[in-house]
Write a structure and sequence with these properties.
Length: 485
């Protein structure tokens, strides 16, 4: 075992557990003997010297993760409602997310707690008639028909996508009535999200309100289909999905506020933890949010316990939390894009930043270009495989958008804090924020509307790669050239 592996002891063990959890997607462990074997291998490790101990502990965690991941997938794939396909009965469901209006119906994620004589707790997708939509957290009493999700259509397989999120049936709602609100942790999440939504874009309308809500809450339902496409083509769609930057700003804002009012650092860190937890609850368990939330929480705990925090270890712990909850998350585009982007920031950004130091760019702009280029390069293969699209102008688009992203988040959070105390002040901040949102819309329309903004055909991709290869071969001097000189 190498000296580097020994220095990276926690990271190696965390990575081993991730490998085991991910392996359940390939082959499932069908017996509890795997867990017993994991315990035996881990026990043997106690009596070995340091290099061998690390290897045996890693193998033990791989086996343990494989067993746990297999058990989780078996539980996720279990669906009592599949035995009631094409039947209709009275149902009781709890709406767990925001409703989205389509052309022909309204869709909303939910949990079915009763269907006919079945008492259960199964995630489902609701399809309701066009009209009023139930709010998140509502408990509905409805007449529902159990149907299968749609198969592959226009390149998207709804059935497979829903199955990976634990949803195996669609409930078509014929009539419903709101009979209450959920309580507990889910009720807290609903209340925080409702407060944020009512305050961050107070007084704004149209695309400005939709962009602010998208950046803060990860919602794009208020945007037109044309504007969503422009954000995608420009490589700015990640701004409408909650990311680590949001979580970092929430934690930082909590620490700054505590410092301004004179709260001791210990209580400030506890407040930052509470703010991170509340924000993650409000926006939902998206892979990028959970990853950033885990990293932020562990960073605060590291300060509270006076321990150093390693960024790779924090990243791996976030992956463990996500994969342990649902190993199918490994196949999710959001998971892949988020972790690839963070890995690129760790590995490539310092190198790109050094390479750009000879150019007439200020430090902030140089960092934006380095981050955009690194993330774009790392996520390009994933974007092509998942969505069959490649954004070519993501670096200039993000460089143009960067000046307003942090102010937009800061003003939105400020409006949320001031709304209960001074609605007028919150509306003033939201009005200022509307100009930031309008600028983002302008950049998305300008860059995303260019014909060369993105490519979607394999032929164009092949031509692009061939051109890049020829340019690289011409730009890099060969050994033969050096010899001739």
């Amino acid at each position: 075992m190498t000296a580097l592996a020994l220095r990276r002891f926690p990271q190696v063990l965390a990575g081993s557990l991730c490998v085991g959890l991910a392996a359940a997607n390939v082959v499932r462990a069908q017996t509890g003997l795997i867990l017993m074997l994991s315990a035996v291998v881990g026990s043997v490790a106690v009596f070995l010297d340091e290099p061998r101990r690390l290897g045996f502990l890693g193998l033990s965690l791989i086996l343990c993760g494989w067993w746990w991941g297999s058990a989780r997938l078996n539980a996720i794939d279990r669906s009592p409602l599949r035995s009631r396909l094409e039947t209709a009965d009275r149902a009781r469901v709890v709406v767990t997310g925001p409703a989205q209006r389509g052309r022909y119906d309204v869709r909303a994620p939910a949990v079915a707690v009763r269907y006919g004589d079945l008492v259960l707790r199964e995630p489902v997708l609701l399809r309701l008639p066009l009209g009023r939509a139930p709010p998140q957290g509502a408990i509905l009493d409805a007449v529902a028909q159990v149907t299968e999700p749609r198969g592959r259509k226009h390149g998207f397989d709804e059935r497979t996508w829903l199955r990976r999120h634990g949803v195996h049936v669609v409930l078509r709602i014929h009539s419903w009535r709101d009979v209450g609100r959920r309580r507990g942790l889910g009720g807290v999440a609903d209340a925080v999200r409702r407060r944020l939504r009512n305050s961050v874009a107070r007084g704004l309308r149209g695309s400005r309100a939709a962009v602010v809500e998208g950046v803060v809450l990860g919602e794009d339902t208020g945007l037109s289909a044309e504007l969503r496409q422009r954000f995608r083509a420009a490589g700015l769609y990640h701004l409408l999905a909650v990311s680590g930057q949001n979580v970092a700003l929430v934690a930082g804002s909590a620490l700054v506020f505590a410092w301004l009012v004179g709260v001791p650092r210990l209580l400030a860190e506890v407040g930052a933890l509470a703010a991170i937890f509340a924000y993650v609850l409000a926006v939902g368990a998206q892979p990028s949010v959970v990853r950033a939330g885990v990293a932020g929480a562990l960073g605060s705990l590291a300060w509270l316990t006076a321990r150093a925090a390693d960024r790779w270890h924090l990243l791996l712990v976030g992956a463990i939390v996500l994969l342990a909850s649902n190993p199918y998350t490994l196949l999710d585009a959001g998971f892949q894009l988020s972790f690839a982007a963070v890995g690129a920031i760790f590995l490539l950004v310092p190198r790109f930043d050094r390479a750009l130091q000879g150019y007439p760019l200020g430090r902030p702009l140089r960092l934006v270009v380095a981050v955009s280029a690194a993330c774009g390069l790392a996520t390009a293969p994933i974007a092509w495989l998942q969505f069959h699209t490649l954004q070519l102008l993501t670096v200039p688009a993000n460089a143009l958008a960067a000046p307003v992203v942090t102010p937009l988040l800061g003003l939105a959070l400020g409006a949320a804090v001031l709304a209960p105390l001074s609605p007028g002040a919150a509306a003033a901040l939201a009005w200022l924020n509307g100009w930031c949102a309008a600028y983002l819309v302008l950049v998305a329309r300008l860059i995303g509307g260019l014909p060369i903004a993105q490519i979607t055909s394999t032929r164009s991709l092949v031509l692009l790669l061939a051109g890049a290869f020829i340019l690289a071969a011409y730009a890099v001097p060969s050994k033969w050239d050096s010899t001739v000189e």
